[in-house]
Amino acid sequence: MTARLDSELLPDWVTWLRAPNAGPMTLDGTNTWLLDDGTVIDPGPDDLAHLEAIIEAGPVRRILFTHGHPDHVDGIMTLLALTGASVGEVPDWLTELPTPGHTTDSVCFVAERDGQRVVFTGDTILGRGSSVVAWPDGDVGAYLASLDVLAGYEVPGLPGHGPVLPDCAAAARWLRDHRLERLDQVRAALKQGARTPEDVVNVVYADVDPGIRFAAEWTVRAQLAYLETLSEL
């Protein structure tokens, strides 16, 4: 069942709904954000109960999404059929920021009204933990640059999964440091004799949940591709 959540960090013009699709890759489930002008950000999976909860909390006039992964967009066609909303029309008070890295098409949205400002971060910054750089579509260099952009927003971050972030900028800086630390670990693994992405995963992500080992391998492949651009391989 869809959860409707409250947070003291949310402006009064934002409603937070969480889809019932919890899992290793989606944390507690996909966060859907509904703005009081009828804008829906990341409708989530094609789950009728969740989509009906969005409509009940509505109105629903336009639909935006932070990137094209199924857990964020599979519900769009059904929501369109139920509401007649439009897709992709960004309201004037909401700025779209290209933030590639997790995926090529990843974007964030900055909204400001009534003296309140927030950033909808999608999967570029999660509410907890770190995002997968989803090779071959994801790109470590682009991700680091996107984190540099988001480090300029010292406002709450409203992520695609997990709890609201008190400070988007602080989360971006932490993630950037974390990514650089992981790159150092990959370099060390290569020096120790790792030859394949699987070898690197065994060293750098030895404690990863077996259920998401494939995601760790995606990230390692993206890390190796990035290091190759630096002529380090």
Describe the secondary structure blueprint for this structure.
Blueprint: E1 3-5, E2 14-18, E3 31-35, E4 39-41, H1 48-57, E5 62-64, H2 70-73, H3 76-83, E6 86-87, E7 94-98, E8 107-113, E9 116-122, H4 140-150, E10 157-159, H5 168-191, H6 197-204, H7 213-229
Parallel strand pairs: 4-5, 5-6, 9-10
Antiparallel strand pairs: 1-2, 2-3, 3-4, 7-8, 8-9
Average pLDDT, rounded to a whole number, is 95
CATH fold group: Metallo-beta-lactamase, Chain A
What's the alpha carbon Rg, rounded to whole Å? 18 Å
CATH superfamily: Ribonuclease Z/Hydroxyacylglutathione hydrolase-like
Please tell me the total number of domains: 1
Poorly predicted sequence stretches spanning 5 or more consecutive residues: none
- Structural class by helix and strand composition: alpha/beta
Distance between the termini: 48 Å
* Name given to the CATH architecture: 4-Layer Sandwich
Globular, elongated, flat, extended or rod-shaped: what is the shape? globular
CATH C-level category: Alpha Beta
SS element count, helices: 7
Share in helix = 25-40%
In spatial order, strands of the major sheet run 1-2-3-4-5-6
Q: How many extended strands?
A: 10
What is the H/E string?
Answer: EEEEHEHHEEEEHEHHH
Biggest pleated-sheet summary: 6 strands, mixed
